[in-house]
Amino acid sequence: MSSGNNNVNTKLDFDESNPKPASVYLGSLKEFFKETAPNATVEQQSRLNNLLLSMIQMNHNIFKNQQEATFRKVENMKDAVKKFEEKTEEIKREILQGPREAIHEELTELLKKRHELQDQLSDMKAACSSLDQKMKDEMVNHQEDMEKKAKAHRAEMVEMAAKISELQEKLSS
């Protein structure tokens, strides 16, 4: 192992209570690769880029699945609220026709549950909105990062092509 590689920091700081975006860890992985394998072939670099892209796609799929699950929960909450509203209307009709005191207690309890469900539904909508914004921000950051990487990769390819041409000229002379 060369002495230059002895200075490579392979420890990432993981904080479960405040996780960093995946792009931080992917960037660290790419930097570690550059530091430990500065003479990597184009194929090796391409494999790393493909690995990073698959990890990003996997993260995107996880966010998408979480968002879909949240939307399903919201739909279930809407159904529950609707059922409680229907039950409330039924109880209101019974109040007009039957023993008022027992029905009034049941109606009060159902109204309380309805308000709780409506509060939960509001919380779920806020969570969906927050998750949606986070996903949009991650996608924008990811897109910018990928454009920068693509630009840097193209520049590296041009530089490598120039070096190859230069070496071919030296070999032919």
UniProtKB/TrEMBL annotation:
Keyword Coiled coil: yes
Keyword presence, Coiled coil: yes
Record keywords: Coiled coil
Coiled coil: 74-170
Taxonomy, superkingdom: Eukaryota
Listed name of the protein: Uncharacterized protein
